[in-house]
Design goal:
Layout lengths: L3 E4 L3 H13 L3 E7 L6 H5 L2 E6 L10 H11 L3 E3 L9 H10 L2 E2 L4 H8 L1 H10 L7 E2 L6 H11 L3 E9 L2 E6 L2 H19 L4 E5 L5 E9 L5 E13 L2 E7 L6 H17 L4 E9 L5 E7 L6 H8 L3 H9 L16 E8 L1 E2 L5 E2 L2 E2 L2 E3 L4 E2 L5 E6 L6 E2 L6 E9 L2 H13 L2 E3 L5 H9 L1 H5 L6 H5 L11 H26 L1 E2 L2 E2 L5 E6 L2 E10 L2 E6 L4 E6 L7 E6 L2 E10 L2 E6 L2 E8 L1 H7 L13 E3 L4 E6 L6 E2 L4 E7 L2 E6 L4 E6 L6 E2 L4 E5 L1
Parallel strand pairs: 1-2, 1-4, 2-3, 4-5
Antiparallel strand pairs: 6-9, 7-8, 7-9, 10-11, 10-13, 11-12, 12-15, 13-14, 15-23, 16-17, 18-22, 19-24, 20-21, 21-23, 25-26, 27-28, 27-34, 28-29, 29-30, 30-31, 31-32, 32-33, 33-34, 35-42, 36-38, 36-41, 37-40, 38-39, 40-42
Helix pairs in contact: 4-5, 7-8, 12-13
Length: 667
């Protein structure tokens, strides 16, 4: 058995591997860059080795530095995680020369499946259904346009060595094909050091469903069911689940058998994933094979009971699989939500900074029998760096059925506290509450179709508005009661806490009256209705569990001046609780207008300006490219919203900018 594992990765996946290795009694070695000197995976490992500067090209992607760390620590095996060097055959070959075990598949399988062009050909030869497309290398943008036209729009432009949504574009016409080809090449070169591009037909109304395979070095290969990964944004997965609500047992078996056939064709062992695109008629087509552990592997572990990292380690040690295909059963339902350092209110642009508050929900089996799991690589007070992927954590829930798993996820998201950076918790909560998602009617276009104008939060309906108003009134009452306790009695006059309030939520106001004491209070509305609330909130707390008419809610509560900010189920409202007279006067106050920035192009995220496409005095048209910003390994093209003349350009290529720094100004 392996005695010491070096994890050639960082963040949550490094922590994930360390947990299983410790359970197996195996020593662990972490590696870290300058930016990760105080990272969680460094703290968790038995040893830690510094491997270079913050940019991944000078640390986590540097094979020589990794080998030096291996030699220094005497590690006899390496787990690559995912991303970075996980699918780099040169790294696997270098380990073999060093006599170090690579906890992954054979080099030949990595080479064959890591190149999407070669993998498509091999899949077809193995009898796996494939998507129509052009598998040869493409010389330039003109050839890309010609190929796209011959295949028929829409087409998918993809990096041959790509993964994780990097180097991928959808083109609906010649202009988008030309621009997408160049952007994909740039991203592919920056992320993978390989700018080869291929083009294939984009399947309309697609679902992204993948099969988990697991094989040993003795020829045994099984499939562990499927994962539905259709909720994607910019071709990157956001929410995954196992099993898929769409597949029949027959389709699952057919996809699983084809996945195993492909794995056998390349002599595969270890954990791997075969990805398929599935249309509305359940026709499925091979997309690619990921020769590594997938980000979303926890949902498979939750429904099968198989620790995939442990199996990878045992297979690498030469052991036979302890299970056959007949032993694989799918139990219950699991959902995974990826928590990203991205601001959904700013079109999901990356966010960096310090996690001033990071309080995940309690893990483990809950009182109702559901399970909460949170895979993370961060901690409160830690920094989210601009150098790496923006994922903060992977929150997973398990329940006996899909509806219960979604409900458990909604509750867990409500209990997840993250402050200091922009993040997508409100968006994840919003999806969990949507009827379309709950019905399982999803495709890879889900986010674009459900949020065509971007995400602006969930607007409270009438019932939610009353609940939020009642919570705000109870919070105000307790704040006032605390103030009365502090001030005490002055002379013969004790401070009186009112019971009648007007709660303003945006343009809606609720006149309420409170009664009761202790944790339980009754909030009566002017129309005769009422809500009974019980809450553990006290002044100073940032989160509360509120039971409203028997329903448990996790509410984030912030006192902002005289206002109360409430966040729940994707809703983010500011309540103002006033006496009737103060509320009447407040309606007479003028509204302060925000500053006009319509003539300014501001940097939407912290990043590096890779190019400026216009000059001062130039007339630009709507949709024309103005500048390109690279952040967290993604290239973002900024375009003009309307026709105008550039007055001045203040940024230059290569310059690092913070959020809202000026790039250029229009006349």
């Amino acid at each position: 058995m392996i005695s010491k594992i070096l994890i050639a990765n960082r963040g949550e996946i490094a922590c994930r591997v360390i947990r299983t290795a410790k359970k197996m009694g195996i020593a662990t070695v972490a590696v870290y860059s300058d930016a990760d000197a105080n990272a969680l995976h460094v703290r968790m490992a038995d040893e830690a080795v510094h491997i270079g500067p913050s940019p991944s090209s000078q640390s986590y992607l540097d094979i020589d530095r990794m080998l030096a760390a291996i030699r220094r620590t005497g590690a006899d095996a390496v787990h690559p995680g995912y991303g970075f060097l996980s699918e780099n055959p040169l790294f696997a070959q270098a380990l073999d020369k060093e006599g170090v075990i690579f906890i992954g598949p054979p080099v030949g399988a990595i080479q064959a499946m890591g190149d999407k062009i070669t993998s498509k050909k091999l899949a077809a030869e193995a009898g796996v259904s494939t998507v129509p497309g052009h598998m040869g290398l493409i010389a330039d943008a003109d050839e890309a346009v010609a190929i796209s036209s011959s295949i028929g729009y829409p087409v998918m432009i993809k990096a041959s060595a790509g993964g994780g949504g990097k180097g991928m574009r959808i083109a609906w016409n010649d202009e988008e094909a030309r621009e997408g080809f160049q952007s994909s090449k740039n991203e592919a070169k920056n992320s993978f050091g390989d700018d080869r591009i291929f083009i294939e037909k984009f399947v309309d109304q697609p679902r992204h469903i993948e099969i988990q395979v697991l094989g040993d070095r003795h020829g045994s290969i099984v499939y562990l069911g499927e994962r539905e990964c259709s909720i994607q944004r910019r071709n990157q997965k956001v929410i995954e689940e196992a099993p898929s609500p769409f597949l029949t047992p027959e389709t699952r078996r057919a996809m699983g058998e084809q996945a195993v056939a492909l794995a056998k064709a390349v002599g595969y062992h270890s954990a791997g994933t075969v990805e398929f695109i599935v249309d509305g008629a359940r026709n499925f087509y091979f997309l690619e094979m990921n020769t590594r552990l997938q980000v979303e592997h926890p949902v498979t572990e939750l429904v099968t009971g198989v620790d995939l990292v442990e199996q990878m380690i045992r297979v690498a040690s030469g052991e036979k699989l302890s299970l056959g295909q007949e032993d694989v059963t799918l139990n219950g339902w699991a959902i995974e939500s990826r928590l990203y350092a991205e601001d959904p209110f700013r079109n999901f642009l990356p966010s960096i900074g310090r996690l001033s508050r990071y309080r995940p929900p309690a893990e483990g089996t809950q009182a109702d029998g559901t399970i909460v799991r949170n895979d993370t690589g961060v901690f409160e007070g830690g920094e989210i760096s601009m150098y790496y992927d923006p994922m903060i954590a992977k929150l997973c829930t398990w329940a006996p059925d899909r509806a219960a798993a979604i409900d458990a996820m909604s509750a867990a998201l409500d209990d997840f506290e993250v402050e200091g950076i922009g993040h997508n918790l409100p968006f994840l909560s919003a999806v969990m509450g949507q009827e379309r998602f709950r019905s399982g009617s999803i495709t890879t276009a889900y986010i674009a179709e459900e949020f065509p104008e971007g995400f602006s939060g969930v607007a409270p309906d009438a019932a939610a508005s009353r609940t939020l108003a009642a919570i705000a009134a109870v919070v105000q009452s307790r704040v006032q009661a605390r103030a009365a306790e502090i001030s005490g009695t002055i002379g013969n006059h004790a401070r009186v806490v009112g019971t009648d309030w007007v709660v303003q939520l945006g343009k809606i106001s609720h006149a309420v009256s409170l009664s009761g004491s202790g944790e339980a209070m009754v909030v009566a509305f002017e129309d005769g209705g009422s809500l009974t609330l019980a809450s553990d909130w006290h002044p100073g707390a940032r989160h509360a569990h509120v039971i409203a008419e028997g329903e448990m809610l996790g509410v984030k509560i912030d006192l902002v001046g005289s206002a109360i900010r409430l966040r729940l189920r994707g809703m983010d409202v500011t309540a103002r609780v006033r006496s009737a007279r103060v509320a009447e006067l407040a309606r007479l106050m003028p509204v302060k207008l925000p500053p006009d920035t319509s003539r300014l192009l501001l940097c939407p995220m912290p990043g590096v300006i890779t190019s400026i496409a216009v000059t001062a005095g130039e007339t630009v048209e709507a949709g024309q490219t103005l500048a390109t910003v690279e952040a967290m390994k993604m290239e973002n093209v900024l375009k003009a919203e309307r026709r105008g003349v550039v007055k001045r350009v203040t940024a230059t290529a290569g310059q690092s900018l913070a959020v809202d720094e000026l790039i250029l100004e229009f006349e």
